[in-house]
Amino acid sequence: MSSLLCMCLSTFTSCGVFFLQMGWGDLGAFGEPSKETPNLDQMASEGMLFLDFYAASPLCSPSRAALLTGRLPVRNGFYTTNAHARNAYTPQDIVGGIQDSEILLPELLKKAGYTNKIIGKWHLGHRPQFHPLKHGFDEWFGSPNCHFGPYDNRALPNIPVYRDWEMIGRYYEDFKIDLKTGEANLTQIYLQEALDFISKQQASQQPFFLYWAIDATHAPVYASKHFLGTSQRGRYGDAVREIDDSVGKILKHLQKLGISENTFVFFTSDNGAALISAPKQGGSNGPFLCGKQTTFEGGMREPAIAWWPGHIPAGGVSRQLGSVMDLFTTSLSLVGLQPPSDRQIDGIDLLPAILQGKLIDRGLAGILGTAYGNKGDKSLRTVAWVGENTLFITGKNIQEYIGWLQNIILV
């Protein structure tokens, strides 16, 4: 998924980018040989790469819920292990979604004076009670689900697109996607929405938080006409190139407006590249095994870049073990807010790692069948479930599998 998170107090703005279903190996900065992501590579050279950064799940919805709540999917209700999986994907025929009992990042930021906007895919429920404007966002342009379809409007309708509370059209009908050619102008629309929102908030000196959550790299993959056929990597590469171009334009816009040094940007993914749609519509997870829908490294380990000119030393590389849940706690720390004290928060504050290059110890945490933790330079992570409550362990400094742990329940 793609997301741009922007938070601003009177003199501070924070932006974070969170991409849909891109693999660890999809960026030139992470070793992709065709080097077709010059803007993201420049972002990395001007900021900090995180080599050991993880999604909260190998699926879209649980990772998004974890990002916005700072909590494991098994705590926030988005888990996929048994009959309770009603909140796993939230497609049209699933009626679950984010619960009112969860406190989302924009809800906390709103209390601090922020204007909050989501652009793109929400994926935390499509019924009215789950609407993003009921969970802290002030504005929304996008869809509750992926751009699956087209449907016949009898058994299932085409997925709707919203501006705030109003449905303004549907995919394939009003927002065209050509499945044969892959042409769609959605990324350009989402880009313009982001640029306009940033300009409006900067002009009014309004603190803001922008969550940019586009889905061009999710099958069926799409790109605009200008980018189609331009990549050595097929249609998926075309989509990546357009996303890269969009990120570059957003960063340049921040610089043009004179707020880049007050703006924190974070780029990552909600799960690994989907190999099930490869080779034509799937990405690269680099050297890591498997991809989306698995808890192997390829499904969970994500590209991640932090950018904050004048604050983050350029060209940094961190081996801090991080998670999308950490963006919740880190974002609050950036604006001087404390996380809720009435519930378990699993995300940690990454600012010491980002600004000072420190390695932060974190306890063992279970993430939908994946465990990770570190103590100093020693880290522990699993590559998969091998049975119910059974883990197969690998470690950063261990060259081979070190054993089986039986009957471990991590949460």
Automatic annotation (TrEMBL):
E.C. numbers: 3.1.6.4
Main location, first listed in the record: other
Cellular-component GO terms for this entry: lysosome
Subcellular localization, as worded in the UniProt entry: Lysosome
GO MF annotation terms: arylsulfatase activity; metal ion binding; N-acetylgalactosamine-6-sulfatase activity
CC cofactor: Ca(2+)
Signal peptide start and end residues: 1-15
InterPro entries reported for this sequence: Alkaline_phosphatase_core_sf, Sulfatase, Sulfatase_CS, Sulfatase_N
Keywords: Calcium, Disulfide bond, Glycoprotein, Hydrolase, Lysosome, Metal-binding, Signal
All residue ranges annotated as the Sulfatase N-terminal domain in the record: 22-336
Keyword Lipid metabolism: no
Catalytic activity: Hydrolysis of the 6-sulfate groups of the N-acetyl-D-galactosamine 6-sulfate units of chondroitin sulfate and of the D-galactose 6-sulfate units of keratan sulfate
Assembly behavior: Homodimer.
Similarity comment text for this entry: Belongs to the sulfatase family.
Protein name in the entry: N-acetylgalactosamine-6-sulfatase
The gene coding this protein: GALNS
